[in-house]
Amino acid sequence: MNPIDLAFTPALEQAQLIRCGEVSPLELVNLYLERIQRLDGQLGSHFTIAADQARADAQAKTEQLAERGKDDPLPPFFGVPISIKDLNPVQDMRCTYGTRALSNHIATHDAGIVTRIRQAGFIILGKTATSEFGSLPYTEPAGFPPARNPWNLDYTPGGSSGGAAAAVAAGLCPIAQGSDGGGSIRGPAFCCGLVGLKPARGRVTHAPVGDSLSGIAIDGPLARTVADAAALLDVMAGYTTGDPYWLPQPEPSFLSAAQNFASLSPLRIAYSTVVPPMETAHPDCQQGVMDMAHLLEGLGHRVEPGCPDFTGLLEPFTIVWQAAVAIPPIPGEFMEPVNQWLLSRNSSAGEYLRAVGAMQTIARRIVSFFDNFDVLLLPTNLHPTIRIGEWATLSPEETLEKIISWIAPCPPFNASGQPAIALPTGFDANGLPIGVQLVGRPAAEATLISLAAQIEAAKPWSQNRPPFATEEV
Asked: Taking CA atoms, which of 1, 61, 64, 128 is between 20 and 30 Å from 415?
């Protein structure tokens, strides 16, 4: 297999190649480190490259393979590289949270999901770029190079998991961890042509810290295939003692749901190109929804127009979401302008709690819509990907308006805690990826994963590779 094909090989297949002895962990790590060194100066997908740690881990795992018995079990992703979003601490690695105020901060512990990722056998390549504190849907934090979209370097890969999405789309790692508090996994998947899965509330632990945003944010996978995303969710999922929310482990696994999609029964699926009370989606985004609705109908599902009413959600959700910038003990003068403005708007404790109550009441209305439907099909974003710096000259108030008009289909399901998966559907008029999201009933990731795998089999996308990242050396 040539180096480019290997770099774009799905993570599960890489794990099998390692088991069969066709490639070693050290060869894989060196492949990705070489690609990062050659391409990431233009792409900006990583804040930190842990080359020495990754090579040492890969060398140890390569030696372990040489010494193991033929039938000795291995963790599911033994020797496969991965990158971690720079909102999640990895012990002894720099953890900036996207702010120049913490540009020299070294983490002293692993996040709970990082521990599980290590236990699954992954090798951590480094930390991917994020917007400051993860608050914005593009990845251009002050003091860092902007993360760029590998399909067109003039455009954003989205945010706040923009670096993770750019890295996977460009073949700088086979799979990545991200997080989603208002579309921060799904939006980058939309921008970069990937699978982005926001799990259900309680599926993934926040350990060792607590939940800080009343349940709207959660970690999840960004991948090139549905099976890879499902398998990484299997790794990340599970209760840790003291978690404020929890769900039972799925039986069978999420990977099984992806592999056994042929047994999926016909579903009742609603679709909409409008997110009430917001504006109608851009024609390219509308077309993605209509094409997907037609495909789903052809797969035997019952598809009909319909959408929950999200009226009243914007104000309380915004109050909860903007509180994220007040969590780090960073003085406002060290923040970038939009976050300074958000900090100045932070509410009193009483106002925050009233907003949480209002958000949860509206979430009940959203979830009740699914009494009559198994899945909801919506645009992921309301219009195509924006250019780097497109909103840089706007006031913070204008920027917030632009953000809302772009990512409106995503936050309602952070409020409700429902699972949602973003899938690529093709390309817009500018040649940039575009896609849709599927939203499931509470805790019903398995249904979404099976449906997504069925769609993937009918209309594959993982063969698409950005020309920027596929030129021969």
From this structure: 128
